[in-house]
C-alpha cells in the first residue's frame, strides 16, 4: 500500500463508541435519573400519612371562616335594624311624653294659679248725651280663659252688621244706600260668613268677627279693639289698638297694632304688616288714635302656650314669608 493511502485512512479500535454516542448516552442516563427522582418524591409525598387530612382541614377552615363571616354580617345588620327601630320608637315616645307633660303643666297651672282677668282698656269719653249704641266703645273686661265675648261688645247696630252670607259675596260696610258713616262711637259685627269678601270702609270703634270661613276681610283703622272668634282659613287686614283672637285656625293677618296681638286656643296663624293702602289712610289712623310709626304686628302673645309671656317660641303662630305679604292687598 502507498504512503498517501495510509495518511487518508482513520484507524478505529474495535468495540469502542464515538464521543458523540458517549455524550448522548450520558444525557439519556441523566434524564432517566431526573425522572426517577421526580417519581420518587411524588410517591414519597403521596405515601405520607395525613396529607389528605391536612388538605381537608384547610378546606374546612376556609368554609368555617366564610360561614362565620356571613353570620357576623347578618348579626351586625340585625343590630343596626334594631337600633334604627329603637331610635324611631324613642323619638315617638319622647314626643308623646313632651305633649303629656305640657298638658299636665297647663292643667296644674290653671288649677293652682288662676289667671287674673285680662282687660281691654280705653278711656271713657264723657259726653252729655250718649246713644245706646255707643256703649260698645266703653271699657270692657275679658276673662282670659272664658272664651266669651263681653256683653258690652255684643251690642251692635244693624246698619253696620253682616250675618249669614255665603257663596262668593262681595260685601261693603257702610252698606250700599246707607248715608251714615260708622265712626268711633259704633261697632262693626260680622258673623256666619262663608266665602265672602268684606270691605269695612270707615273708621269704627270696635269690630267683632265670629264664625267666618274662607273669607277675606279688609278693615279701615279701628279706634278700639278687634275680637276674632271661631274663624277658619280667612285673611284679615286690620289696624287697631287691641286685638284678641280666640279658637281660630289657619288664618293670615296683616296687622297695624298699637299693642301686642293676643291669641288663645288658636293654631296655624301667620302675621304680616298691614297692607291696606288708600288716600285717606294717614288721616284715618289719626282719627283712630293710632300712630303710623308704631306697629307691634309681630309681637304676638299666645295665652295658650306655657311660655305665654314670651313673644317667640309658640308653635301656634309664625311670620308670613315676606314674598307673600303683597297677597294680603285688597283687589279693588
TrEMBL record:
Pfam name, any one: TBCC
Question: Record's GO cellular component, any one?
Answer: cytoplasm
- Domain (C-CAP/cofactor C-like) spans 150-305
Q: Which UniProt keywords apply?
A: Chaperone
- The organism's superkingdom is given as Eukaryota
Q: Does the keyword Chaperone apply?
A: yes
One biological process term from GO is:
tubulin complex assembly
Tell me the PANTHER family matching this sequence: TUBULIN FOLDING COFACTOR C, TUBULIN-SPECIFIC CHAPERONE C
Give the similarity note: Belongs to the TBCC family.
Q: What is this protein called?
A: Tubulin-specific chaperone C
Could you tell me which species this protein originates from?
Fasciola gigantica
Amino acid at each position: 500500500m502507498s504512503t498517501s493511502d495510509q495518511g487518508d485512512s482513520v484507524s478505529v479500535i474495535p468495540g469502542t463508541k464515538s464521543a458523540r454516542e458517549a455524550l448522548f448516552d450520558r444525557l439519556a442516563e441523566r434524564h432517566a435519573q431526573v425522572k426517577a427522582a421526580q417519581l420518587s418524591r411524588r410517591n414519597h409525598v403521596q405515601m405520607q400519612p395525613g396529607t389528605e387530612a391536612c388538605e381537608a382541614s384547610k378546606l374546612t377552615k376556609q368554609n368555617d371562616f366564610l360561614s362565620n363571616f356571613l353570620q357576623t354580617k347578618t348579626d351586625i345588620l340585625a343590630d343596626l335594624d334594631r337600633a334604627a327601630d329603637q331610635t324611631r320608637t324613642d323619638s315617638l315616645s319622647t314626643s308623646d311624653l313632651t305633649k303629656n307633660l305640657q298638658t299636665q303643666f297647663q292643667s296644674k297651672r290653671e288649677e293652682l294659679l288662676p289667671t287674673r282677668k285680662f282687660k281691654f282698656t280705653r278711656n271713657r269719653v264723657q259726653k252729655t248725651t250718649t246713644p245706646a249704641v255707643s256703649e260698645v266703645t266703653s271699657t270692657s273686661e275679658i276673662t282670659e280663659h272664658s272664651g266669651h265675648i263681653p256683653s258690652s261688645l255684643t251690642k251692635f247696630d244693624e246698619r253696620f252688621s253682616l250675618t249669614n252670607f255665603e257663596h262668593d259675596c262681595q260685601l261693603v260696610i257702610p252698606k250700599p244706600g246707607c248715608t251714615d258713616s260708622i265712626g268711633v262711637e259704633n261697632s262693626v259685627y260680622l258673623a256666619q260668613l262663608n266665602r265672602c269678601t268684606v270691605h269695612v270702609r270707615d273708621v269704627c270703634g270696635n269690630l267683632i268677627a265670629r264664625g267666618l270661613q274662607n273669607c277675606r276681610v279688609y278693615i279701615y283703622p279701628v279706634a278700639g279693639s278687634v275680637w276674632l272668634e271661631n274663624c277658619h282659613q280667612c285673611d284679615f287686614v286690620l289696624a287697631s289698638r287691641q286685638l284678641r283672637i280666640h279658637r281660630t285656625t289657619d288664618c293670615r293677618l296683616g296687622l297695624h297694632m298699637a299693642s301686642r296681638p293676643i291669641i288663645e286656643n288658636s293654631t296655624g296663624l301667620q302675621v304680616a304688616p298691614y297692607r291696606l293702602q288708600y288716600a285717606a289712610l294717614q288721616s284715618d289712623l289719626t282719627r283712630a288714635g293710632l300712630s303710623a310709626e308704631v306697629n307691634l304686628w309681630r309681637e304676638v302673645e299666645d295665652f295658650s302656650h306655657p311660655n305665654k309671656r314670651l313673644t317667640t317660641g309658640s308653635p301656634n303662630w309664625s311670620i308670613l314669608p315676606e314674598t307673600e305679604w303683597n297677597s294680603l292687598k285688597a283687589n279693588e
